[in-house]
Amino acid sequence: MPPAGADDKAEPAAAQPAAWVSQQPLLWLAPALGLAHALAAVLSLELSRQPGSVAAIWYANALAVAALAHRGPREWPWLLAAVALGNAAANAAWGDQPLVALSFVPPNLFEIALAAALLRRAGLHDSGIASAAALGLALLLGGLLPSCVAATAALFTLGASVEHGFTGLWLPWVEGGVIGSLSVLPLALLVAREGPRPLLALAGNVPAWAMACAAVGATLMAAALLPFSLVYATLPLLAAALVLPLAGAYLLTLMVSVTLAAALGTGLLVPPPLSAAWQQVFVYLAVAAALLPGQLLATSLHELRRSRERLAKRTQALRRANEGLEQFMHFSAHDLREPLNTIASFGGLLQEDAAAAGLDEGSRRHLALMLQGTQRMRTLLDDMLQYVSVQQGEPPPLQPVDLDALLQDVREALAQRLVQTGARVDAEPLGQVLGHPAMLHLVLQNLLSNAVKFVEPGRVPEISLRAFDEGPMRVLQVQDNGIGIDPDAAARLFQPFHRLHPRRRYEGTGLGLAITRRILELHGGRIEVQPAPGGGSCFTLRLPRPPHHPAGSVGRADIAQRRRAGGADA
Question: How far apart are CA 517 and CA 528, in angstroms?
């Protein structure tokens, strides 16, 4: 099953480099692991101050778990044999009897193998600890569950030789194993995956050294002088999570854990009086509560930083792709326009002098169709260039735009079509909006062109415009008496190249309304369409109003401009 919150899920498997531990020769790795396990075990036994018994905090197993999780199961017997020798050597060095030392080896090996198998099953050996959820899952599968199972197995096999089996063996085993895994396992998994490079990078990190000294010093001072000292141990770890890389935060957690263990072992940190041995679990819960938040915060911030880096790379790649697309469109449009202009020019000459050229009626009709197709292709190229331009996504610099003056400019641009169709345009005072004049000119031109085009044959187009304020937005409504729009098809109307009617009935490229919607989005507005009462369509546009512009106000210049427009009819 995939790890919860695993990072880089969408990246291909080839993008995941092989773990550092998996690349090391077995003949070198096995002795090194045995030695590291023995040193960690000696440290745990020394800090426990309990010769011959289970260590209060057991740091050794997490090292072996991280190594086995990154190696194939066929190599586990060699690694576990090295761990067994290191475990027995540590207990023997501490002064245990050989049989007593060896008796704890099988449960420890079982715990290590179970934890490594669970981590491999969850896929955490491949994906790494890439999120707070993955860290929690790793601590659960690599620390808590194996410790509980191994402690139970040890209770049945060794319980008779240990006084008070549950409180004398099972509970200390689980407490020490869980705190040891919490302290070591995240760092061990990181080093097993990336090698010593993250730790070596900390050698020259001055803030890391300063925070390490502050964390250890603050922990010791709090343990000796302050009540609720474990609370103060959390603060430097949280600060380290904000400042240091992930390896630094994990390393400081281990250092604070060892400091707390030393404080408990030497009596510098005195736990509260306990009425029963099992109540000692609350002390270990407090230690876990001091160590875990910093690791969770560090992992979450690491995940956030990596997500931002991936997003920046993808954004840059997308920007390059868009720039390439725009260049391709411009070059293609230029290269295509040249032969189209040649066809249109010579075709026009033939059409003007069709009789002298000896063209019959059928040839003249074919020539007209050719010129019509040429004009359609030129229109399509223009629309595509406009669409690519507005798709770049850069918001235009906004300025106050007089919609009444803009409407007058659009009517002048469409004067020939308005006269040919006899269209009537009625407009109330529209006021001002914040926007880009050229883009909004294109919006009004597209809407008025469609209102003139999409009408039943023989019907005079009638277009009405009105505007009103709605909070910080200025609402503009453009209503026509055309063929209308099916409500089920309205959602698809603003998609590029989408046409609701065949080209043989209504000309067009299917890009006009897509361009209009994109322009409105760049202005922070939107466009909607509804059926108009009595037939036709009503397009509703929302655009931001200029600041300090009274709602619904129209200045004298607006009224004069409307009067110069010559009334409502075009």
Answer: 9
